[in-house]
Design a protein that fits this description.
Blueprint lengths: L2 H13 L5 H27 L21 H18 L1 H10 L4 H4 L8
Helix pairs in contact: 1-2, 2-3, 2-4
């Protein structure tokens, strides 16, 4: 789940020049959060049960990552929030670099038939 985000963030590092320190700082923060989310997800999924092989057990009542609602909620929240944060740098860039009206930034909201 996190490899496409890493690709997008790598593209942002190419698109946003170092001469824009606010954008670069935000990009570093978003990258750090995404890496921390990916590591947390991997570690949580691996070490959720005290006996690691039990994580992938299909037996009824076993300690398993697949049966844990808590693990699902944490993984989902980290994935969703890192998706939202990865959308922030281009929006901040648009607000600094361009001065067009909102209809050009969000054409799907202002569609007229």
């Amino acid at each position: 789940m996190y490899f496409p985000k890493a690709t997008i963030l790598a593209l942002y590092f190419e698109l946003f020049p170092a001469t824009m320190p606010v954008l670069r700082t935000m990009l570093y923060i978003v990258t750090a959060f995404t890496v921390a989310s990916a590591l947390t997800t991997c570690m949580l999924d691996t070490f959720y049960c005290p006996h690691i092989p039990d994580n992938w057990s299909t037996e009824e009542g076993a300690c398993s990552v697949f049966n844990s609602m808590l693990v699902l909620q944490i993984d989902w929240a980290l994935n969703f929030s890192s998706d939202l944060f990865s959308m922030l740098p281009p929006e901040l860039h648009e607000s600094y670099a361009c001065s067009h009206d909102q209809s050009s930034r969000f054409p799907f909201l202002y569609y007229e038939s």
